[in-house]
Write a structure and sequence with these properties.
alpha+beta, 287 residues, nine-stranded mixed β-sheet
């Protein structure tokens, strides 16, 4: 219908698979659950007082450590889906044996172990639901993908990803960082996002994290990415595990993380066409 427009909703639940289930229902067949590049794109178009900058969001993006048929270890970043893109797959992970020898349980860093078939399929761009998605090389993303699809994968050598920066990183150092480039969906968007984020607090560093140098060797696995934010540039009080409270501002924002444990809450952004004519959002209710 001509009055339809794409409308976003924040979907939060204290249980990750429940949040994903509700987000998928909201998106329906014609919408989508926002990936990490899409979340960063939204931040670029929003003012700093918008909630998109001021809290954390679960991205519909995964970083999978996998082995190619030739025996090479790679990082497969999947934007717009992945192995753990359904509530059922996450629940299967939760219900797996907690024994460290379990083939489908958690890793020691609470990423999700993946099966040999899932490993083989994701390298080839096949999702668990049977869909075939485009697979790009890192060099493709570095140059920029024109009109990228909603769901796609990027494959890069694991050693390159392991050598990427992690922690609170100088903005200038992240401009050419390969993992930041992949996470942003391209070098141009990465640079634009870093410029805007830096202008928010007039600071020199931002969080960009991975644990790829600490993962269990020879274990295919995947982890869902998270985008963090701090309230309005104000300093927010948090508590360290040892009980000492600290103050932090936007300059110590957690930033983008690919190392967040999968036992977690979920806050997705779901986007779907909605009709202004049949909803109450744009109605006037008087004084």
């Amino acid at each position: 219908m001509p009055d339809n427009r794409m409308e976003a909703a924040i979907i939060y639940e204290s249980h990750l698979p429940d949040a994903l289930r509700r987000a998928i229902v909201y998106a329906g067949n014609d919408g989508f659950v926002a990936s990490l590049p899409q979340l960063l794109h939204a931040r670029l178009g929003a003012s700093f007082d918008n909630i998109i900058w001021n809290t954390w969001f679960t991205a519909n993006s995964e970083e999978c450590v996998a082995r190619t048929p030739q025996g090479n270890w790679v990082l497969v970043a999947v934007h717009g889906g992945g192995i753990f893109a359904t509530p059922e797959r996450i629940r299967n992970l939760y219900h797996a044996s907690v024994d460290r020898k379990s083939k489908l349980g958690f890793t020691g860093l609470f990423a999700g172990k993946i099966s040999e078939r899932e490993n083989r399929d994701i390298v080839d761009g096949r999702l668990p639901d049977g869909r075939q998605i485009p697979v790009y090389a890192f060099s493709d993303v570095e140059r920029g993908i024109a009109d990228p699809p909603r769901t796609y994968a990027v494959v890069m050598d694991l050693e390159i990803a392991q050598n990427a920066h992690t922690g609170y990183v100088d903005f200038d150092d992240l401009r050419d960082d390969p993992l930041m480039t992949v996470r942003a969906g391209g070098g141009e968007q990465a640079a634009a996002y870093l410029d805007k984020a830096k202008s928010r607090g007039n600071t020199d560093a931002i969080g960009c994290w991975h644990s790829l140098n600490e993962i269990e060797p020879d274990q295919p696995q995947s982890c869902i990415c998270t985008m963090y934010g701090s309230p309005g540039g104000e300093r927010a009080r948090i508590y360290a595990p040892e009980g000492i409270d600290h103050l932090r501002g936007v300059h110590t924002d957690f930033g983008i993380r690919g190392d967040t444990g999968m036992i977690n809450m979920g806050r997705y952004v779901a986007v779907a066409p909605r009709s202004a004519a049949t909803g109450v959002r744009d109605l006037s209710f008087g004084a």
